[in-house]
């Protein structure tokens, strides 16, 4: 094993910035990364054992303990639960003979929960050794587990047809479905492969490209909505030996899956957008950070890059433009929602824990390797290609004044047609609900858990950066759903699980708020608890990144729009009831140290 | 104006919040014109000797003694303030909350790198010792708390402004800039 590890290190030239890849390869060969391996790595890389352990322990898909031959990661998102995750989990537990979080004694099967894997429109879903199984039922679970026990391969076990579109290509060979329900300016068929690189870049200066993007008024499609043209301008003016373009394909906001579809169906357009950005900003390297959950797309995407290299769409003097050298590498993540935050993503690209950086300086000045770096969302980069092709004026005619262009929505939950919808900005929520076939609607979560949970009185509002912004996630809940236990609690669990732990506010406050929420759900809540939750949530504003700042939104937003749900559960008889019981809370520790509990009731 | 009575205590905290109280510097001279300290490490009075107006709590509850002290504060004080990260959210001590208590104790007394002298593998179990709780609790999960002053530690200016606001009955402004952690 030692030799294999040395081989892996030399494959990456002992580059400590490639630690993520080194760890992925070791995990693939050894099954886990233990202390001895870390010591070995520390010996060969310019990193301390503590630094390596920091990285290993941070990510969901690295393990310091032996895992199973087949590791089943069952998605725990809200829609998975709405679509029968409980029964599917019970079926897995019964078939494997273990509980969630355990590995079978013979080391064949392991069963673990995982945060949203980007399959909200085909839940419940699970990842088994990088292969995605969607639309699970207890029957399918029995088949899969029996098959694995009898030595069938994961490919053998996909008895469904492959998904639609390119999911059926041999390089992907996946049962995942695109479910594209509505195409618009971005997704329609007028895209001619690499026509921007071929026909436009050679005749247009980099400043002109930036001008077109600025005049188009496109804003970042990841959620924050920063003007893309301005970002490119900053990046092009920042001083540095190299500049980098990063494509953020770490869509981890529960309920978002549109980047998965863009990367499946339109990878050339996304990469062409990166090349265009590289030309405009003066970058020589592009990095696409792909979330681990989409690893099943990796070899397909690398194949696309390889054919681009062959055709001089990547490499030296691209499209005959002298001194325009640009290449793209795909970096695989390892399971961390926080890496969707651009500075955390950059830390992760450098092989470190995905902890957001203090800002300023912003990545456009000091990003990857402390050099100027432009980070754009998948959808932004793809859209830019259409803008360069069709012009800024064309783009400005789409959408509304405040938010121009179109937005690709990922719609899931209680609706007849979950999937991908491209719409113009400015669409009313009520129309969104009609469009996806949602009846009897109680609420819709706009922009994922970090966004807003809104009810009927707000269905007249519009999707736009100034009214209801969204990175794409829209989850519908009908009137039979218990919003507090099924939705808000699930979202709070998600934020607690995914906090990187750097800021004490985000590390602790969501936990404290969840305890309050549970207190209310369990009938011990008093009026002050609601006031407390609202006012304490404001404290999260001092967190370093957007995740921390929005981690209380599920509670704040549900109190704001669904307050009667909380009030109905309050105990109005008492002023306060903490529910704390000293006698029971010391039992465990007394047992461990071997003593009898003693209480002084007159204290 | 009659002097208000103040009591303070540090439960599962590091005394950093109390240091921050002392950081109001010479304003402490103004403060003692307005208030009288009762049970508090500041004057070393160990037990309540009269009814108290304002009780200031640093730290959360990690053991039975913390709970008893906190309950006695609730009983003897009209107003209780949770001061700082640990009192409000459990803080650093609450990092143990995700780990089973047996694992924590084993690491602390049996397996940790610094337990070499504990050759008899003794776990502290004397009846005189407080009993550990199953997890570290923020104060409001034990008793009703009236006000919360955030920070790690809350800055002296924030404590000062809050006390003045409370004593004079005026509004307290908590701008972004005064809330600091770590």
Overview of the structural elements:
The complex is a heterodimer of chains A (603) and B (182). With 603 residues, chain A is an alpha/beta fold. Chain A has helices at residues 2-11, 19-30, 35-44, 49-58, 78-82, 85-96, 138-149, 154-157, 195-200, 206-216, 228-237, 258-265, 267-281, 298-310, 342-349, 378-390, 392-396, 429-435, 483-498, 504-521, 527-537, 546-550, 553-561, 563-567, 582-585, 587-593; strands at 70-75, 109-114, 126-128, 131-133, 180-182, 244-249, 285-290, 327-332, 373-377, 406-413, 419-424, 441-446, 452-454, 473-478. Chain A is 41% helix and 12% strand. In chain A, strand 10 and strand 11 (419-424) form a beta hairpin. In chain A, helix 1 crosses helix 3 (35-44). Chain A starts with a helix and ends in a 10-residue tail after the last helix. The model of chain A has no long low-confidence stretch (mean pLDDT 95). In chain B, the strands form two sheets. In chain B, strands 2-1-3-5-7 form a five-stranded parallel sheet, sandwiched between helices. In chain B, strands 4-6 form a two-stranded antiparallel ribbon. Chain B has helices at residues 16-22, 27-34, 64-76, 85-89, 101-111, 156-168, and strands spanning 4-10, 35-37, 52-58, 61-63, 77-83, 132-137, 147-149. With 182 residues, chain B is an alpha/beta fold. Chain B starts with a strand and ends in a 14-residue tail after the last helix. Helices cover 31% and strands 20% of the residues of chain B. The mean pLDDT of chain B is 93. The chains are: A alpha/beta (603), B alpha/beta (182). The interface between A and B is large, with 36 and 40 residues.
How do the helices and strands follow one another from N- to C-terminus of chain B? EHHEEEHEHHEEH
- What is the CATH architecture term of chain B? 3-Layer(aba) Sandwich
- Tell me the name of the CATH class of chain B: Alpha Beta
CATH topology of the largest domain in chain A: Rossmann fold
Number of domains of chain B: 1
Average residue-wise pLDDT of chain A: 95
Tell me the total number of β-strands of chain B.
7
**Structural class computed from helices and strand pairing of chain A:** alpha/beta
Major sheet: arrangement of strands of chain A: 5-11-10-14-12-13
Q: Helix fraction of chain B?
A: 25-40%
Task: Spell out the CATH superfamily of chain B.
Answer: NADH:ubiquinone oxidoreductase-like, 20kDa subunit
Q: Strand content of the residues of chain A, in percent?
A: 5-15%
Oligomer: heterodimer
Low-confidence stretches of chain A: none
Q: State the name of the first-level CATH class of the largest domain in chain A.
A: Alpha Beta
C-alpha termini separation of chain B: 37 Å
Biggest interface between chains: A-B, 36 and 40 residues
Report the CATH topology name of chain B. Answer: Rossmann fold
Tally the helices of chain A: 26
Structural Rg of chain B: 18 Å
Residue ranges of chain B: pLDDT <50 for 5 or more in a row? none
């Amino acid at each position: 094993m030692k030799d294999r590890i040395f081989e892996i290190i030399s494959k990456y030239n002992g580059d400590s910035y490639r630690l993520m890849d080194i760890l992925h390869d070791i995990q693939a060969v050894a099954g886990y990364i233990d202390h001895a391996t870390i010591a070995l790595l520390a010996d060969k890389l310019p990193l301390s054992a503590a630094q390596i352990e920091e990285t290993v322990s941070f990510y969901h898909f690295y393990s310091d303990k032996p895992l199973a031959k087949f590791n089943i990661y069952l998605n725990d998102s809200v829609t998975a639960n709405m679509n029968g995750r409980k029964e599917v989990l019970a079926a897995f537990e019964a078939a494997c003979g273990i509980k969630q979080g355990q590995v079978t004694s013979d080391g064949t099967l392991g069963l673990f929960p995982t945060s949203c894997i980007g399959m909200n429109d085909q839940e419940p879903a699970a990842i088994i050794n990088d292969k995605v199984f969607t639309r699970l039922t207890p029957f399918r679970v029995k088949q899969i587990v029996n098959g694995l026990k009898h030595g069938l391969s994961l490919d053998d076990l996909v008895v469904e047809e492959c998904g639609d579109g390119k999911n059926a290509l041999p390089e992907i060979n996946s049962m995942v479905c695109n479910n594209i329900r509505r195409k618009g300016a971005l997704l329609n068929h007028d895209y001619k492969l690499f026509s921007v690189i071929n026909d436009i870049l050679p005749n247009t200066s980099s400043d002109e490209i930036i001008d077109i993007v600025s005049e188009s008024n496109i804003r970042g499609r990841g959620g924050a909505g920063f003007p893309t043209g301005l970002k490119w301008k900053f990046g092009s003016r920042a001083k540095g030996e190299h500049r980098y373009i990063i494509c953020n394909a770490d869509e981890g906001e529960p309920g978002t899956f549109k980047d998965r579809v863009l990367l499946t169906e339109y990878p050339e357009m996304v990469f062409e957008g990166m090349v265009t950005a590289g030309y405009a900003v003066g970058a020589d390297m592009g990095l696409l950070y792909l979330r681990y959950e989409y690893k099943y797309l990796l070899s397909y995407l690398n194949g696309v890059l390889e054919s681009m290299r062959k055709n001089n769409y990547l490499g030296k003097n691209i499209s005959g433009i002298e001194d325009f050298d640009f290449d793209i590498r795909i970096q695989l993540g390892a399971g961390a929602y926080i890496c969707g935050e651009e500075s955390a993503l950059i830390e992760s690209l450098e092989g470190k824990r995905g902890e957001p950086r203090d800002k300023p300086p912003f990545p456009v000045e000091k990003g990857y390797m402390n050099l100027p770096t432009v980070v754009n969302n998948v959808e932004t980069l793809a859209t830019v290609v259409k803008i360069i092709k069709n012009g800024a004026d064309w783009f400005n005619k789409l959408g509304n004044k405040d938010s121009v262009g179109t937005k690709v929505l990922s719609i899931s939950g209680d609706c007849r047609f979950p999937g991908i919808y491209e719409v113009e900005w400015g669409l009313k929520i009520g129309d969104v609900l009609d469009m996806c076939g949602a009846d009897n609607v109680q609420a819709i979560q706009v922009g994922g858990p970090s966004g807003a949970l809104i009810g009927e009185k707000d269905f007249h509002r519009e999707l736009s950066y100034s009214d209801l912004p969204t990175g794409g996630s829209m989850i519908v809940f009908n009137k039979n759903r218990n919003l507090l236990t099924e939705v808000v609690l699930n979202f709070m669990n998600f934020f607690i699980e995914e906090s990187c732990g750097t800021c004490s506010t985000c590390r602790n406050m969501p936990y404290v708020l969840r305890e309050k929420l549970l207190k209310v759900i369990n009938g011990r809540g008093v009026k002050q608890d609601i006031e407390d939750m609202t006012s304490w949530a404001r404290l999260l504003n001092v967190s370093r990144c957007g995740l921390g700042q929005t981690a209380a939104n599920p509670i704040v937003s549900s109190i704001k729009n669904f307050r009667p749900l909380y009030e109905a559960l309050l105990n109005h008889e008492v002023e306060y009831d903490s529910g704390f019981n000293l006698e029971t809370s010391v039992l465990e520790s007394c047992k461990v140290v071997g003593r009898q509990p003693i209480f002084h009731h007159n204290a | 104006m009659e002097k208000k009575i103040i009591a303070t205590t540090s439960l599962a905290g590091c005394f950093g919040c109390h240091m921050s109280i002392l950081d109001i510097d010479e304003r402490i001279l103004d403060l003692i014109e307005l208030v009288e300290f009762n049970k508090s490490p500041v004057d070393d009075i160990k037990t309540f000797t009269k009814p108290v107006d304002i009780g200031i709590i640093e730290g959360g509850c990690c053991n039975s003694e913390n709970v008893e002290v906190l309950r006695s504060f609730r009983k003897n004080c009209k107003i209780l303030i949770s001061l700082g990260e640990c009192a409000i959210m459990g803080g650093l001590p609450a990092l143990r909350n995700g780990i089973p208590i047996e694992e924590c104790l084993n690491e602390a007394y049996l397996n940790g790198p610094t337990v070499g002298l504990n050759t008899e593998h003794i776990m502290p179990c004397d009846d005189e010792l407080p009993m550990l709780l199953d997890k570290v609790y923020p104060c409001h999960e034990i008793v009703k708390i009236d006000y919360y002053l955030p920070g790690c530690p809350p800055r002296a200016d924030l404590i000062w402004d809050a006390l003045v606001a409370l004593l004079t009955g005026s509004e307290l402004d908590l701008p972004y800039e005064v809330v600091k952690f770590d």
